[in-house]
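User: Can you predict the 3D structure for this chain?
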Amino acid sequence: MEQLEDFKNAKLLNAVKTGNSAAFNEIYHLYRKKIYGYAYHFTRGKEEAEELTQDVFVRLWENRSKIDPQKNFDAFLYTLIRNNFLATLRKKAREQAYSIENLKHEQSFNAIEDELNAKETKQIAQEAIESLSPQVKKIYLMSRNDHHTHEEISQLMGISKNTVNNHLKKSLGIMRKYFSTYSPETILSFLLVLFC
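Assistant: Here is the predicted structure, written as structure tokens:
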């Protein structure tokens, strides 16, 4: 009985080898469950096993000229499944490595871009500060850099607290106008530099 099955399979495989799609369809129905079982053994997942099973049949058709009906067809199929599974694993590993590498480059690029934007914003802020009159500049720096209160600045400079408030408002207005010549992102960065 087993010889009859082997003979029938050899005849089908010869027909597949010559491009007979009906014979291929019969091989598909005879071996689909077995190939799925092998595929599931490798993947341990239903969807992945189904996909691998389909890929193996596609490869079988593409490589039908390599079928040797006299050799163990089960071993040939097992080799196809294993090789296809390993190729899929390698592809996923490459994609994952590529994805991780791209993410690293993107994060690195964003950090560099952020640093350049911060440096540019600080430079623009410094230019804006330099454009202030000497007394307004001094009051601004005492407030923002030295963190003096308006009361402390008025006592240190011998001017009223109201004058300090007016000079700070004036300095912020001048700086806002200075930054308005740049993009809205720069203004936002300016505000971050100003209040942080």
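The helical segments are 2-17, 21-43, 46-62, 73-130, 134-144, 150-157, 161-180, 184-195. The mean pLDDT is 78.
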